[in-house]
Design brief:
Chains A, B, C, D, E, F: One of its GO terms (biological process) is amino acid biosynthetic process. The structure is a homohexamer of 308-residue chains. The first copy, chain A, contains eight helices and 15 strands. Chain A is an alpha/beta fold. The termini of chain A are far apart. Chain C binds chain E through residues 7, 11, 14, 32-33, 66, 70, 81, 84, 103-104, 107, 111, and chain E through 7, 11, 14, 32-33, 66, 70, 81, 84, 103-104, 107, 111.
Chain lengths: 308, 308, 308, 308, 308, 308
Amino acid sequence: MTGREFDNKISKTIEDLSDPLTYNLVCHEHRLGEPLPSIPKLQRIIELVREIIFPGYFGNTSLRPNTTRHYMGVYVDELYELLSQEILAGMCFECIDEQVGRAKEYTIEAKETATAFIEYLPEIRRKLVADVNAIYLNDPAARNVGEVIFCYPAIRAISNYRMAHKLLELNVPLIPRFISEMAHSETGIDIHPRAQIGESFTIDHGTGVVIGSTTIIGNNVKIYQGVTLGAKSFPLDEEGNPIKGIPRHPIVEDNVVIYSGATILGRITIGKGSVIGGNVWVTQDLPPDSKVVQSRPKEITFTDGSGI
Amino acid sequence: MTGREFDNKISKTIEDLSDPLTYNLVCHEHRLGEPLPSIPKLQRIIELVREIIFPGYFGNTSLRPNTTRHYMGVYVDELYELLSQEILAGMCFECIDEQVGRAKEYTIEAKETATAFIEYLPEIRRKLVADVNAIYLNDPAARNVGEVIFCYPAIRAISNYRMAHKLLELNVPLIPRFISEMAHSETGIDIHPRAQIGESFTIDHGTGVVIGSTTIIGNNVKIYQGVTLGAKSFPLDEEGNPIKGIPRHPIVEDNVVIYSGATILGRITIGKGSVIGGNVWVTQDLPPDSKVVQSRPKEITFTDGSGI
Amino acid sequence: MTGREFDNKISKTIEDLSDPLTYNLVCHEHRLGEPLPSIPKLQRIIELVREIIFPGYFGNTSLRPNTTRHYMGVYVDELYELLSQEILAGMCFECIDEQVGRAKEYTIEAKETATAFIEYLPEIRRKLVADVNAIYLNDPAARNVGEVIFCYPAIRAISNYRMAHKLLELNVPLIPRFISEMAHSETGIDIHPRAQIGESFTIDHGTGVVIGSTTIIGNNVKIYQGVTLGAKSFPLDEEGNPIKGIPRHPIVEDNVVIYSGATILGRITIGKGSVIGGNVWVTQDLPPDSKVVQSRPKEITFTDGSGI
Amino acid sequence: MTGREFDNKISKTIEDLSDPLTYNLVCHEHRLGEPLPSIPKLQRIIELVREIIFPGYFGNTSLRPNTTRHYMGVYVDELYELLSQEILAGMCFECIDEQVGRAKEYTIEAKETATAFIEYLPEIRRKLVADVNAIYLNDPAARNVGEVIFCYPAIRAISNYRMAHKLLELNVPLIPRFISEMAHSETGIDIHPRAQIGESFTIDHGTGVVIGSTTIIGNNVKIYQGVTLGAKSFPLDEEGNPIKGIPRHPIVEDNVVIYSGATILGRITIGKGSVIGGNVWVTQDLPPDSKVVQSRPKEITFTDGSGI
Amino acid sequence: MTGREFDNKISKTIEDLSDPLTYNLVCHEHRLGEPLPSIPKLQRIIELVREIIFPGYFGNTSLRPNTTRHYMGVYVDELYELLSQEILAGMCFECIDEQVGRAKEYTIEAKETATAFIEYLPEIRRKLVADVNAIYLNDPAARNVGEVIFCYPAIRAISNYRMAHKLLELNVPLIPRFISEMAHSETGIDIHPRAQIGESFTIDHGTGVVIGSTTIIGNNVKIYQGVTLGAKSFPLDEEGNPIKGIPRHPIVEDNVVIYSGATILGRITIGKGSVIGGNVWVTQDLPPDSKVVQSRPKEITFTDGSGI
Amino acid sequence: MTGREFDNKISKTIEDLSDPLTYNLVCHEHRLGEPLPSIPKLQRIIELVREIIFPGYFGNTSLRPNTTRHYMGVYVDELYELLSQEILAGMCFECIDEQVGRAKEYTIEAKETATAFIEYLPEIRRKLVADVNAIYLNDPAARNVGEVIFCYPAIRAISNYRMAHKLLELNVPLIPRFISEMAHSETGIDIHPRAQIGESFTIDHGTGVVIGSTTIIGNNVKIYQGVTLGAKSFPLDEEGNPIKGIPRHPIVEDNVVIYSGATILGRITIGKGSVIGGNVWVTQDLPPDSKVVQSRPKEITFTDGSGI
C-alpha cells in the first residue's frame, strides 16, 4: 500500500463518517457555551455526598469532632456549585431548540434545585444510617459498622440510588440515570432511580441485582445477588412503540427476603414476610408469608461421559 | 526481629522469587524495544471509536455541524496511530522467537490492519445505530436515544464487541480479547469477540450476561441480565486438553427473547421467535416460537423457623 | 429565592449535618496522625503482587532474564513499605480508644506482618501458577497462558483472594476485606477472604460468583458465572443479632463442577466429582459423583400475546 | 500540650484568620456562578496557540500534510471555547458590583473578543515566523530552525507577548498580564503585554530581561539576557500615588543591539543602529549609531587576602 | 554489539554504580519507616498558606463571606497535618544515627512546631498585606491589588520567604531552604530564609534578585530585578573551610531603593533613604540619603566592524 | 454577530492557518510512525540520572544499603529504554527525507549510543561528587552536603550540563540542547552543552548565568548569578549568515572567581587565579591573578526630586 493509497482510504473514511445522514440519530449537537454533563464532576458529586453522609470514611479528610462543621461547610459549598452545573447540563441535554434562549431561567432553576437537594441531605443521611444498620445486623460476616460503610458495595449502590431518586423527584433530567449507572458499573447493582424503596433496605453481595423503574419496595426488605425485579412484558402503542410510564414491575412488601438469582417479573405483589428461594421464576402474586423454592433438581446420568 | 533478620528474610524471598523455575510458566519475557500492549492506549482507542460512532457524546468535545469533519479527521488520525501500535504489540505478544526478526514486516502489517479497521468504521456505525434504536424501542424506561447512548451499559458492551469482532476477523491477536474484557469489567457483560451477532441486538441491564466464542445470534434478539449462552462440555484430545475451535455454544435465531438468568448450553438451536423464561436451564434444541418457563416453584413450610 | 434565603437554607443544612446525633453511628473519627487506609496505596499493593507473581505482565516493566532479580528486589521493597503502612492503618481503623497509645507496638507488629506476608509470596505464586494452568486447560477459547494471565478476570479475583486470605490468617483487620472488594468491583466475583479454597481452582467468566466466608473448596474445582456458595439462614443470639463465626456455607469437595447460576446454600457438602447444572437451588448434601440439573422447563402458551 | 490546648490554639487562629478586617484588602470575593480565571485553562490556551502557530512542534500531534486542516479546525475550536471562558473570567474578576447583572452582555462580549483574537492568529504567525528566522540567523549555535522553535526560551516569551499584547488591545483585563507572567516564570523573560515591539525581534538566552509597559521597540532589535528597559522614576499624584499611564520607558529604534545586563531607564530614545555594551547604565538619549560600553574596570590589589 | 556484550556492559555499569565507595558522600540512606521530604506535599503547603493569607485567590475555592470560616477551618486543618509531616521529615533528614530512636519525641515536637507556625499565620498575613499594598503603590502599571496578588512573582517570593523565615526561627531544618528554592525556581528571586526583612517590602520584576542569609533589610525598601545583596568574601577556619554564621551580607536601612542589577557585597550599611543606581558595584558603607550611579559609559568606535 | 457570521470568520481563519505557505518555515512534518521527542520522557530521564548519581535523594525511593543494587539495576534498565527512544527521536527530528528509510540502522545506533552513555555514568558521578563538594565548601550558608544536593539549583544545572555534554560528544542531535533548556527553565542557569567545563565547578545562586557554546572553563572555578560568558560578535559568511563553529566565547582558567553580573565576552582568556568583580564588562584578555572591579560609582544629586 503506498502512502497515497493509504491517504485516500483514510480520507474517504473521514468523509463517510462526516456525512450527517450516517449519524443523525446518534449525534448530540452541542450549542455554543452550553455545558455538557461531566463524568469527573458527577464522580466528585457522589464522593462529596458519601463524605457528607458518612463523615470520615470517604474523601481525603482527617475528620475530628471540632473540625466536622468546617468540613461540612466546605463540602456542601463545593457540592452546591458542582450540582448546579450538572443539573443545568442535564436540563440543556434534553432541551429542544426553542428552549435554548432560556439559559438564565434554567440557571436559576438549576441553583434552586441544587439547594432543594442539599436541604434534603439530612433526610438522606437518616435513611442511609438505617440501611447501614440493617446490613450490619443481617450479615454475620460483618465485623463492625465501619467495615460495612467502607467495603460493602450495597452501601455505594443504595447511596447513589437515594441521591438519584431525590434528584428525579426534583425533575432533574438525565443526571439521576447517570448516577445510577455509575453505581451499576462499580457494583453490578442496577437500581432505577424511579423505583420506590422503603427503609432499612439490605442488599447482600449484590452483583446482578436489577430493580426496575416502577418497582415498589417496603421496609426491612433483604435481597441477594442476582435478584431481578423486572417487567414481564409491556403493551405497545399503535405505532408499535412501548407505552411509557405504565406500572410493570413488582411490589415487594415489608420484611420480604429474596434469595440469589430469583427472577420476579411483572406488576405482581410479593406479600409481606414472604421468603423467595434462589433461582425461582415468579410471575404471579404471592400472599403474605409465602415461602417458595425451586422444584427439586433431578439427578441424571450423563451419557456423553464428559461433564454434563 | 532485628534489622539483620529482617534483611535476611526479605533477601531470601527475593532470591526465591527470582528463580526462573518458579515463574517459567507465568512470565512474559520482554524483547528489547518490543512494544507491550498498553491499557491506557487501549482505553483511549475505545473512547475514540465511541466518539467517532456517536459524535458529541463521548470525549471532551464540543461538536457542532461545521466542526464535525475536523473532529472526525483528528480522531481518525489519533486512532490510526494508537491502533497500529497496539496491533503490533498484540502481534509481538504472541510471536515466538524465530519471528522476532520480522519487526519491519510486522509494522507494515499492523498499519495495514489498522487502515482496514478504520475503513470498516462506517459499517460499525451503521450497525450500532440499529442497536441503539432497538434498545430504545425495547425499553419503556428510556426517555430518549441520548439517554441510551450516554447511560446504557449495553451500548458500551456491544460497541466493544463490534470493534473487537472486526479486529479478530482481521487476525489481530490478544487485543480483541482485551477490548472485550474491558467492557466486561465496566458492564458485567462478557461477549467473546469471536461470537457472531446479528443486527438490532438488545441487552437490557446486562450484568452477568455471557456469550461464548462460537455462539451465533440472529437479528432482533433481546437478552436480559444474567443470561448465559455457554458450552455444556467439550471433547478432550488424546493428551486430555480441550480441543480448540469446535462449535460448542448455542445458535439463537432471529427475534428470540431470553429473560434474565436463563442458562442455555451447548451447540443447540433456539428457533426463531422463541421466548425463554428466566432462570431456565436449556440444553436441547427448541423449535421456532417455543415458549418455555421454569417449572412452577413449590410452596414450602420451613421447619427450622429461621428464614428458609 | 434571594441570596439571603439561599444562604439561610444552606447554613441551616450545614448545622443539621454537623449535629453529632445524626452521624454518630456512621462517622469514623480520626485520631491525629493516625494513618487512614488509602485506596490508591492498596491498588498499588495489588499491582505489585500481581507483577511479582506474573513477571512481565503487569506494571510498566520491561522484564528480561538478567533484569528479573533487580525488579523483584525493587517491587518487594516497595511492597514492604506500602503494606506495612496499610496494615497499620487497618489496625488503627478498628482499634478502640484505650489502644491508641500503643502506636509503637502497632508499628512493629505491622512491619512483622508485612514481612511474614512477603515470605509467603513464593507459595502464593506456586498456587497461582496451578490456578492459571487449570484455567487454561479448562477453556478451549484460551489461546495461550499469556491470554489467561492478561485478560481473564478470574485470575484477578483469585489473586486478590489468595493475597487477602493470607493477610487474614495473619490477623490483619479490614484490609483483606478491602482487597476482596476491589476484585469484586473489577470482576463481579465476590470471594470472602476467610473462605478456604484448594489448588487448581477455576472460575470461568465469573460475574456474579459469590463465595461466602465459611466456604471450604477442595482441589480442581471449577465454577461458572453466577454461582452462589452462600448461607441459607443463620441463628440469632438473645438480642436478635446474628451469631458470628458459625459455619454456614457449603463444603465443595475435589473435582466438582458447578454450572452458571447455581445457588448452593447452607453448611452442606457437595461430594467429590459431582456436577451441578446451571440455575439449580441446592440446600441439601449431595453424595460424591452426583449429577443434578434443573427440572425440565415447561412449554407454555402465552395468553396476553405480548412476549411472556 | 494537651489535645484541648492544641484545639484551642488552632480554633483561635481560625477565628483570627476569618476576621474580615484582617483580609479585606487581599480577598477576592467570589460571586455565585461566576467563573474564576483558571491556570490550567490558560496553560492549555498557550499550548494551543503555540501548536497552531508552529504546526507539529507542540502538543501531542502527528501532523502530516493532509491532516493539517483537521488539526487546525479542532485546535481553533478548542481555543475558542477556552478563550471565551477565560476572557469572561477576566472581565468578572475586575468588574464591580453594579456590573454583576450584566452576565449575558459580558458573555457575548467575551465570545466576540475571542473571535477577534482568532481572526488575528494568521498575523501573529506571520510575525512569529519573522522572529524565529531572526533568532536563527543571529545565533551561530543554532543548528536549524526546529531547534530554535523547540528549545529557545525566547520563542516562548515572544509568543506569549504577541498573544497577550493582542488581547490587551482587545481590552481583555487581567488575562494578558497572566499570560506574560507564565512566560516570565518559565523563561525569566518579563515583557509587559502593553509594550510595543516591532518585527524580527531577537532575545538571546533571555533570563532577567525586563521590558516595561510603555516601551517602544523598532524592527530588527536584538537584546541579550539581563537587559532592563525600565522606568527611572514616576510622578506621584496629589495623594502620593503613582500616576498611571504616563510614558516612562525607553524607545529603542530599529537595528539596535543591547548586550547583557545593560540597564536603560526612563523615556529616552536609543537611536537606530546603536550598540549598547553589557552592564552599562543609560538614562539619557543616545543618537543613532551610538556605541557605548562601560568604563574600563580598574585593577586592584586586595588587602584582606581572601578573594576580593 | 551482541546481546551478550550489551548485557555485560550494562551489568558492569550497574556494579560500578552500586559500589558504596563511589556514592558515599552523595547518598541519603533511608531508615525504614522514616518519612522523606515530599515535594508535592511542600507545594500543597505553600498553596494552602497562600490561600489562607489571600482568601479567594489561590486554590480551587469559591469563597464567599459566609463560607470563609469553613474554608479557613479546612485549610488550617490540612495545613496542620501536612506541615507536621514535613517538619518531621526535615528533622529526620538531618538527624544522625544516635537520634533515630527518638521518633516519638520528634513526632510531638513536629506537631508543636506546626501549631506554633499556624498561630503565627495572622501575623504573616498582616505583613503580607503591607507588602502587597507597597507593591501596588510602587507600580504605575498595576491596575489593582488583585492583579498584584494574582500575577506578581514578588508576592510569591515574599510569601515563601515569610513562611520559610518563621519555620527557620522555629528551628525546622531543611524545609525552610526548600521552600525558598521553590520560589526561586518559580520566580528567579532567591531570598535566603535566614535573612531579616522589614515591612512593606517591594521587589519589582525580580528575576535574578539574591538576598543572602545574614542580610538585614529595613522597612519600605524597594529593589529591582537582578539586585544582589551578597557576601564579598568569607574567612576560612584552620582547615580551610568557610566559617559558618559570621555576618557577611549588607544592612539595608529604611526607605532605600536599589535599581536593577546593582551588586552590593559584604557586611556594609546602605544608609536610610539612599538610592542605588543600576549595575553599580558597592562594597563600602554608604551614608544615609546617598545617591550613587555607575560612571558614565564611554562612547567607542568599533574597529572590527561587526557589532561591538 | 450572528451564528453564521461567526462560523464564517472562524472557518476563514482555519483556512488561512492551513495554508502551507504561511507555515512552511515553522512546521515540523511528522512521518508516520516516527517518534517525536517527548518532554515527559526527557524529564523522567533527567530524574533517573539524578537518582542514579545521588542515591536516595530524588525519585520516590527508600534506598537502604542492601537495596541499592536492585534500585540501580531497575533505574539503569528504565533509563536505557527511555534514552534509546529519545536518542532515536532526536535523530529522526533532524534527518532529511532520504534518510528516512534507515529506521533500522538508526534504531541500532540509538541503542548503542544509550549504552555508551550508561557506561559513562560512573564518570559523571565522580565529577558531580567533586562539584557537590566544591559547592558545599564554598558556601558558609550550606549546613551539609544533603542540603546542597537537595536544594541547590546549581546541582540541577550542572547535572544536566554533564549529561547533555556527554550526549553531544556521542553526536546525539537536539536532545542535549533540550536537556540544557530544561535546567535553564528550572534554574535560570543556561549552560550550552558544547561548553567544556573542568572539575569542582561552583555556581552560587545562579539565576541569569550564561555559558556559551565554545566556552572553556578550567578546574575549581566559581561563578555567581548573572555572569555571562558570551560572544562579542561573530563573523558572517558571504550570504550574511553567522559562520558556525568558530571559537567565540572566553577561556576561563583554573581557580578563577567571577562575581555576580559580570559580562565577559569574546575569545579572550581570563588567567588562572583571577578574581573578577561584579557587574564589570570584560572584552580583553586578563593575565593570571588579575583582580578587576568596576570603576567607583559616582555620587549624584537628583534634580528631579523623585528617586533617581
